[in-house]
Amino acid sequence: MSSTYPALDRTIVIDFGDDGAFGPFAAEISFSGADQTLTFVVTRGSLEGKTETLPFEASEVGEGVWMVTWQEADLLTVVQAQNFNTGQLASAVTTPDHHFVQLNGTVTLV
Predict the structure, then answer these.
(1) Hey, what domains does the chain have and what are their CATH numbers?
(2) pTM of this prediction?
(3) What CA–CA distances, in Å, run from 71 to 62, 84, 94?
(4) What is the pLDDT of residues 20-35, one digit of tens each?
């Protein structure tokens, strides 16, 4: 498994629906292969409009399934299992105040 991350130099839309731990939440995330950064823009929910560019890592853990990780400036840490075969997304987040939150949603490559 030495594939290239499918979202590299592209954008994904993630959606955790309306009833997740953070309430309604969706975002667009663009991944740059040139400098190995992602840029996210929250498109729905209480954090709508939040945007940030930061480094990320992506590792294939199964055919079409990728573990993607990053840490935001406020020290929120994200680990996502992105399944491009099924469109399913599982995310584990550690908040800046040390709470651990798990979320399930969808991932769409655009």
Answers:
(1) 11-109 (2.40.128.20)
(2) 0.93
(3) 23, 22, 9
(4) 888 899 999 999 999 9
